[in-house]
Amino acid sequence: FSVVPGGRWESTGAGLAGTFDKDSTVLSASSYSNVRVQATVRFGTGAYYGELLNRDLMPEKGYGGAGSVLLRSTPDGSSAYYVNLDPNLRVVRVFKLVDGAFTVVASVPAALSHGVGYALDASVDGNRITVALDGTQLIDATDSSLSSGRVGVNVFDGRAAYQDVVVTPLP
What we know:
It is built from no helices and twelve strands. It has strands spanning 2-4, 8-12, 15-32, 35-43, 66-73, 80-86, 91-98, 101-109, 117-125, 128-133, 136-142, 149-169. The chain is globular. The two termini are 23 Å apart. Residues 46-55 and 57-62 have low confidence and may be disordered.
């Protein structure tokens, strides 16, 4: 895998954990058109004492962060679909980054918390993007901006851990 643009990623008992005060992404070497990514995601799985952008929203010990699974990403992460879980904003959403511009494709409120593991199931098949959390389908959206690319995991403004990540190419 490759890390863009920076941040610290490590293999831990909590899985692949990333810490950064901005966006940091780990991307696969393989590229996919239609793909399903499943993972257990947990935010704030360890103390982070760095300078956080949203430190006023974080619990006392400096825990926090949000994260995303990336679908159809360019090798440098400059374009991708982000399946974003944000316990700070209490939302699950899909947004796309194309040519430096973020656009929300779909968004739903969700009672997400730090320190809790969530079973995320995200897929892109043709122009259809689906997202389920803990077995409940939350998003079923369409967008045809991106046709293929790498998959990845992301941390934003804190710490996120991804465990039992399964990537399945779809026909």
